[in-house]
């Protein structure tokens, strides 16, 4: 014959069961949060990375110390900012895409020409105006044939011509040649630090 539990014992048992139930809920919740966090981190690392600007080559649009969010698999278009491994150097940089595969690029009198078309660079409008008023060139004249390692009339497939926004001082394709797609680390999506600068980066003209 089973011994009947007293009300007090039933109360203790009920509290114990409730405590176990709450502990299980907490464990399940923590496991769910952990799995979700790992999925979020894994997805972020698969598609994005954070990049810190380390020099002044992209002035006036990027400052040293700016932190950018790079999209690893974004399609590259003209005037995108891309991070990449510098050809022949153990260094990385971020520059602006000016020339795309298959294009004939040249600069003359501070005007970008793609074939015979003039392409305005609105992200440098103030600097171009200042250069004109002070009678100097922001971007020295050059053609695609002047680019290091380039003998063709057009940019080869899967290669890009990049320039620094700080045209007079920043090193770019004029110094180290075209950038192969395989060496590109990502396309800048926005400034994530400092927070006040978020969304202020000019991607295209």
Automatic annotation (TrEMBL):
EC code: 3.4.21.89
Single GO MF annotation: signal peptidase activity
Domain of life: Bacteria
GO CC, alphabetical: plasma membrane
Membrane keyword on record: yes
Family, per entry: Belongs to the peptidase S26 family.
Protein name, as recorded: Signal peptidase I
Organism whose genome encodes this protein: Enterococcus canintestini
Taxon lineage: Bacteria, Bacillati, Bacillota, Bacilli, Lactobacillales
